[in-house]
Amino acid sequence: MVSEPMNNTLCPKCGKPTTKLFQGKCKDCFLENFVLAEIAPVLHAKMCSTCGARNVKNKWVEQGDLEEIVIRTAEDALFVHELADDIELYIEPRARTPYLYNVHIEVDAILLDETFHQELETEVRIVRESCDMCSRISGGYFEAIIQIRATNRIPGDEEKQECINIAGSVLERLLNKGDRLAFISSSLELKEGTDLYIGSSNAARHICKEITSHLGGSFSESASLQGMKDGKDMYRITFSLRLPEFMPQDIIDYKGRIIEIRKFSKNVTGMDVETGARFTATPDDIKGARLVAKRKDLPKTMLVAMENDDLMVLDPDTYETVTVKKPVMFSAEPGTEIPVVKTEKGLLAVADLS
Fold first, then answer.
1. C-alpha closest to that of 77 among 122, 117, 118
2. What CA–CA distance (Å, rounded) separates 200 from 207?
3. Considering the entire predicted model, what is its pTM?
């Protein structure tokens, strides 16, 4: 360390007068054996053989490619003198084998108003082992289960896949923030839905919030005691996630109105099939509504003619010509097929998606 300025001080080593002492010596004596930087001749970098994470001070962290791991290992092990300022590093890894690198290092710095340059060589050996996350995944470790179900129905394959995609996106985000338990250890397909086994209960909770935000529905959680670790109770949490009863592009009968659902989240939005009016309600509001049909299952029939706001179409069951109201945002031409839905009110033409 640099001491406070002093007058008429003698250097303990050479006896010359000096106004400052640098680590107990005058500037000339200090610089005689000065070493700008040091590094061990051999370094070891622990790297996960599965995911490529790197172990730093007994903590696994996400890392880049192999060369980046080598550079980071050299940077972490490099000692640069505490009095040095304006430090610039140049590190060049050179592979001898896939897991053995020679590393050339150049250090430039300013110290005591002088510029110093030093070159060093070291060797980085890559040690392959399994990280904490991959070890737990391979061992089937999990802290939480997400049970993906739907209200009064069985969730479809596309819905379940969308839930899994959302889960993957959430887990990637949490993993990048340092949550090493943000993973799916396994999944189980059941008649009533899908179960996801999640590494951490915190990650599972984030997933449930994201799914219900995007797809609607709700979730609840319950904990069960699994044992003790380090004197603390260990719990496993089950998240019961219920997707909404109705999905986008479901056509429902709500209090006599035929509504096509367009979006289902905190609020339900859709369109009145008869009038084209916008529909908005809460999930609780539409409890008791009845599913009439799904858009993808609607029959298509021939559009015979158009006259003002009326369409003449063939009834898909009787093949008789019937007149129906022209929907809003309708763009089909006579001679083409259009989707229709049969209701208690009769046959209705369904508007194009927009």
1. 122
2. 11
3. 0.67
